[in-house]
Amino acid sequence: MTDDLEETGGVREVKSAARTVELLEYLAARRNRPARLRELSDALGVPRSSLHALLRTLVKHGWVRADSSGSLYGIGIRALLAGTSYLDTDPYLALIVPFLEELREKVDETFHFGRLDGPDVVYLATRESSQYLRPYSRVGRRLPAYSTALGKSLLAERSPAQLDAHLPKTMEALTRHTITSRAALEAELDRTRKRGYAIDEQENSLGLRCYAVALHYADPPVDAISVSIPLARLSTEGELEVVAIMLQLRDRITRVVNPLGGLSG
């Protein structure tokens, strides 16, 4: 067992456990694109023989699924059970969802609740507009924090030194509007602090503008709520209305949730 341990940041990491987590996260990130053994081996830098044995074990226990030929691998149903357990037991989510529903009733647009996780924002809850039904759920999905209103509202709560833990080495463009330089992002975060809310100007999806506010029941905040509005039906009056409603609700949420104590992030 000693050979399977490695010092990482002062923590004795179990290599086999770390390899398993990396494999599951890689498969999850591919969504509906199964991968072959060779591709997985190249991506993770793991010998095929070792990886094949690990895959067979995970398939047996339901964490990975294989096609009928046994050559294509994807994330398994056990991962879904673990994910839903996280949602079911999160004390903040249960409190935030009624506020999302209230927002959606006041303004018939799509609202999200997300949490900062490393360089990404993970979507924990969504309430869709009746005017547009997304063909898939965003719950459980992750997007780069630098390219989302949710993420930028949370990055703006951090110092330049703290940003390093939440930005990838390369900020790739998701659309032609995505901010891809550190200097431009820091300037946008400064504007976010002055406004009190973040804006995603078609940086993830063309034709959509998003607004987000950080929720201050943790220090620094790790959760935020956002609204997505198609530009085709967004007016100046509508923008002012939805931002004002979100800022008011942010203050209410902070007062209600604060007694639970903070999250680390």
TrEMBL record:
Gene3D superfamilies: 3.30.450.40, Winged helix-like DNA-binding domain superfamily/Winged helix DNA-binding domain (1.10.10.10). Transmembrane segments: none annotated. Keywords: DNA-binding, Glycerol metabolism, Transcription, Transcription regulation. May be an activator protein for the gylABX operon. This is Glycerol operon regulatory protein. Residues 78-262 form the IclR-ED domain. It holds the Pfam family HTH_IclR. The keyword Transmembrane does not apply. One of its GO terms (biological process) is negative regulation of DNA-templated transcription. Residues 14-77 form the HTH iclR-type domain. One of its GO terms (molecular function) is DNA binding. PANTHER family: HELIX-TURN-HELIX TRANSCRIPTIONAL REGULATOR, ICLR FAMILY (PTHR30136), HTH-TYPE TRANSCRIPTIONAL REPRESSOR ALLR (PTHR30136:SF24). Coiled coil: none annotated.
